[in-house]
Design brief:
Blueprint (H helix, E strand, L loop, with lengths): L13 E5 L10 H17 L1 H12 L10 H10 L2 H22 L5 E6 L2 E9 L2 E5 L10 H12 L3 E6 L5 H10 L3 E4 L2 H10 L9 E3 L4 H10 L4 E2 L7 E6 L5 H12 L6 E6 L2 H15 L5 H11 L1 E5 L2 H11 L3 E5 L3 H5 L7 E4 L5 H6 L25 E9 L1 H18 L2 H17 L1
Helix pairs in contact: 1-2, 1-7, 1-8, 2-7, 3-6, 4-5, 5-6, 7-8, 9-10, 9-11, 15-16
Enzyme class: oxidoreductase
Protein name: Sulfopropanediol 3-dehydrogenase
Family: Belongs to the histidinol dehydrogenase family.
Length: 433
């Protein structure tokens, strides 16, 4: 058993009806070393290195990485009409929600004392990179979630990178979502190309989007000169439920997430033993006929958990400890219960709010914090694509008020240069009086 134990405050208040047998935190040292080499190579040799890694990792021999306007149109023409309509439906929902969120991020200017003006501006990031994973399935919602908010935020340019073997529909999705440029580059080499720039790929200011372990490690290593949205681990879903929970619905939603990846973490947190046991049985039953059972069963076996809590307080405490990427609430009064929770990536209130709707098309973003990061951050949103940058300007009355304490404080700290910078303005003001 490598599961990280629950906090001491919950000892004796939890019982594992089904325990995970592995911890999601894997040894990443080999990945880190390989990625460091890729980043260094791409930084030094640009397109030539990208081309070599594309051949090595993706069996790609593309001479030109960028998708041309004609190729964009071809991908669009190949898109099934219903798939296009569904994609545009999702794009519009994500756009509307992002616009509503952006309307709450307002510029500010205040005058806290006479003559002192403080404020902030809301500035779109100039150029962002959207990494669009290929994966085992064509995740048509992926480009929507990383590209559309950037366009709504007003970024000058959104650059998309996706693996060269990605489904053509993914190229169409990038185009429909508004990507200014699309490159068929995947993996760590794509992150390197966007972070450092190459002959073909422009250097971006911030990189968005999830990926595999190599993409995630590359984002971690390039962070600093270039921004990143977050470090995304394997997907997660937890459901908090009382005796009113429906084991069939709960099992269906757990397995719907478990089919993402063999390292997906899925769990039920409940105060009802009968529900806990029925859910375990229902998961086993549904796995018998699930087409993606090979992946989902491994995820459930290794990372699935069902936790029986002593009372509601323990259920809330354990949920906040997990800080699940996706957290569903199946209780008698889900809205009241939801207000008691604070750590999660995105919250799904009531049994009608399944993760699948958010993953695909309702409008909230599906790029969310994992591995406990929900304790300190939320997910990707339109605010991730803007900077809140402060400014200040002073009239004479403000200089009279702030200069003397600034001079004294600088002197106390032994910073003569600071002291002089404050004093020269104060002295000039006194001389002109």
């Amino acid at each position: 058993m490598t599961r990280v134990p629950a906090p001491r405050a919950l000892e004796g208040k939890l019982e594992y009806i089904k325990s995970p047998v592995q911890d999601q935190h894997a040894d990443n040292s080999k990945v880190a070393g390989l990625v460091a080499g890729v980043l260094k190579d791409v930084r030094e040799r640009g397109d030539a290195a990208v081309r070599e890694y594309a051949s090595k990792f993706d069996n790609s021999d593309l001479e030109q990485f960028e998708v041309t306007p004609a190729e964009r149109q071809q991908a669009l023409d190949m898109l099934d009409p219903q798939t296009r309509a569904d994609t545009e439906f999702a794009i519009e929902n994500v756009r509307r929600f992002a616009e509503a969120q952006l309307s709450t991020i307002l510029p500010l200017e205040v005058e806290p004392m006479p003559g002192l003006h403080l404020g902030h501006r809301v500035i779109p990031i100039q150029r962002v990179g959207a990494y669009v994973p290929g994966g085992r399935f064509p995740l048509l919602s992926a480009p929507i979630m990383t590209i559309v908010p950037g366009k709504v935020a007003g970024c000058d340019e959104v650059v998309a990178c996706l693996p060269p073997n990605a489904h053509k529909a993914m190229v169409a999705g990038c185009h429909l979502s508004g990507a200014d440029r699309i490159f068929l580059i995947g993996g760590a080499q794509a992150i390197a190309a966007m972070a450092y720039g190459t002959e073909s790929v422009p250097q971006v200011d911030k990189i968005m989007g999830p990926g595999n372990a190599f993409v995630n490690e590359a984002k971690r290593q390039v962070f600093g000169p270039v921004g990143i949205d977050q470090l995304a681990g394997p997907s997660e879903i937890f459901i908090v439920a009382d005796a009113t929970g429906n084991p069939e619905l709960i099992a269906t939603d757990l397995l719907g997430q478990a089919e993402h990846d063999v390292r997906t973490r899925v769990g039920l947190i409940t105060t009802d033993r009968a529900l806990a046991q029925a859910t375990v049985a229902e998961v086993d039953r549904q796995l018998q006929t699930l087409a993606t059972a090979k992946v989902a069963a491994e995820s459930w076996a290794n990372y699935g958990e069902v936790v029986l809590c002593e009372d509601e307080a323990a259920m809330i405490a354990y949920s906040d400890y997990v800080a699940a990427e996706h957290l569903q609430v199946h209780t008698a009064d889900p809205h009241a219960f939801a207000k008691k929770l604070r750590n999660y990536g995105s919250l799904f209130i009531g049994e009608n709010a399944s993760v699948v709707y958010s993953d695909k098309n309702v409008g909230t973003n599906h790029t969310l914090p994992t591995m406990g990061a929900g304790k300190y951050t939320g997910g990707l949103w339109v605010g991730s694509y803007v900077k809140i940058a402060t400014y200040q300007w002073l009239e004479e009355a403000a200089i009279r008020a702030v200069a003397p304490p600034a001079i004294r404080q600088s002197g106390s700290e032994g910073l003569e240069g600071h002291q002089k910078a404050a004093a020269i303005r104060f002295d000039r003001l006194k001389a002109s009086a």
